[in-house]
Amino acid sequence: MIHYSCKNVDSMVIGSDDGLNLEEVFDEYSQRIKDIISSLNQRKDKPGQYLQWMNLCYNEETLWYVKEYASMVKGRFENLLILGIGGSALGGIAMTKALLHPYWNFLTEEQRGGYPRIFFMDNIDPDTMTSLLESLDLSKTLVNVITKSGDTAETMSQFMIVKDLLEKELGDNYRYNIVATTDKRMGILRQISEQEGYKTFVIPDDVSGRYTVFSAVGLLPLALVGINLDEIINGVKDMDLSLKNTDIRQNIAAKNALIHYLLDTQKGKSMSVMMPYSSRLKYVSDWYVQLWSESLGKNTDREGNSVHIGQTPIRAIGVSDQHSQMQLFNEGPNNKVINFIRVKNFDNVLEIPSIFEYTGIGYLGGKTVNQLMDAEADATIVTLTDYNRPNVTFTLDKIDGYHLGQLLYLFEFQTAISGELYNIDAYNQPGVEQAKNYTYALMGRIGYEDSANVLREKFNAV
Ligand code: PA5
């Protein structure tokens, strides 16, 4: 399991201006947390509640179909190209970056065990898109296009470019190089898939994009590059079981949600830093940033009151950011709560040879980089705490599918509890939709003429 420590949030350690009396607040909120967890579990099967993400790990059917398709296409493609954005890409990126060999795409086919290289096209920068498309032999590339709505401009423009190229190269057979992950019934991609005869996977109803990592959205890319899905799903199931515990003292997600909520609303900690001490976990921070921002950044609560709440999440990485953001974290405004993620056992132990005797560096010889990483993380945590900066630490035994499944599900649950504490809808994203609509208007999509007029007026006013 994942170990969690929040002692450096306690007012006994960092003082009452910045810290919380944890025993007191756990007592005070114990019933509220009980009610929230029970209510989430009671509502999770009800349509319209957007809690289907809590059921994804129990969907044996999806797991079976994903695995079957992955084994069917194994060895047929050199490359896997994922088209998607936001929640349709970030989970897959976080999981593959953590679980695959860090330089997977440089390995030979044999070293990759016959599985393809993997590329995510999660932006529409014309330079990177063109370069990637020029570098891939598309005839040997499986393209997984992922979009729940089926009409996201970024993903669908990528798709239109890639489909056109594929069709020019492969003729009618191009369709076997495409697999679509989209809504069961709705959306243009579903329509196109049916017309063209693509293999498809379903993004279930009542799951917002940022909670889809354990649906076919995340699982299919992972299976296609040979990552063991059972390990991940077992991790999610075990974490789900442990998070059913309604006792706040026994529930990591509830503890961290309450700590963030109270630090934000009572102690002015309006930012949440996610700082893994592992390069492989770097993209878990990106995924967390979206989850925390889109879920909790809201202007109205459930009763329609204007609230404008939500902590700003910040990506950081240990140890690199000790030489970048840490100065600010230690001495700048005391407005952050820092989440460290530590790894107990790395896959490799790397020894530093004793080749110099200079006092300034001689001590490094004979030690391992692992020891150095640990020492630096310990030192950073103690320093931050000396500066009275609240911080919590998650420790993973190792980086594998089981622990990654646990970690991501834990953060999803923490976000859901936070949404309840703030009394907001953690599953919509009206602020994203508005910009999408303006883009459609600017690009001349039929039906968006009113938005186009509003935009024209605004531009003229500037
Ligand atoms: O979390 C979300 O709901 C969003 O980030 C979406 O995933 C993102 O906007 C992409 O949407 P779609 O999957 O419809 O293309």
Q: Whole-number radius of gyration?
A: 23 Å
What number is the mean pLDDT?
97
Number of domains: 2
Q: Could you say which structural class the secondary elements and strand pairing correspond to?
A: alpha/beta
Tell me the series of helices and strands, N- to C-terminal. EHHHEHEHEHEHEHHHEHEEEHEHHEHHH
Spatial order of the strands forming the largest sheet? 1-12-11-7-10
Task: Describe the structure in your own words.
- The protein has helices spanning 11-14, 22-43, 60-73, 90-99, 126-135, 153-170, 188-196, 216-224, 229-243, 252-267, 282-296, 326-331, 359-362, 369-386, 401-422, 430-442, 449-461; strands at 3-5, 79-83, 117-121, 141-147, 178-183, 199-203, 271-276, 298-300, 306-309, 312-315, 336-343, 391-396.
- It folds into two domains: 3-42 and 232-422, 3-Layer(aba) Sandwich (Rossmann fold), CATH 3.40.50.10490; 52-227, 3-Layer(aba) Sandwich (Rossmann fold), CATH 3.40.50.
- It is built from 17 helices and twelve strands.
- The chain starts with a strand and ends with a helix.
- Helix 3 (60-73) packs parallel to helix 8 (216-224) and helix 16 (430-442) packs across helix 17 (449-461).
- The chain is globular and about 70 Å long.
- The longest helix is centred in the N-terminal third of the chain and has 22 residues, at 22-43.
- The relative contact order is 0.14.
- Helix content is 47%, strand content 13%.
- The structure holds 5-phosphoarabinonic acid.
- Residues 85-88, 147-149, 152, 155, 208-210, 294, 429, 432 line the site of 5-phosphoarabinonic acid.
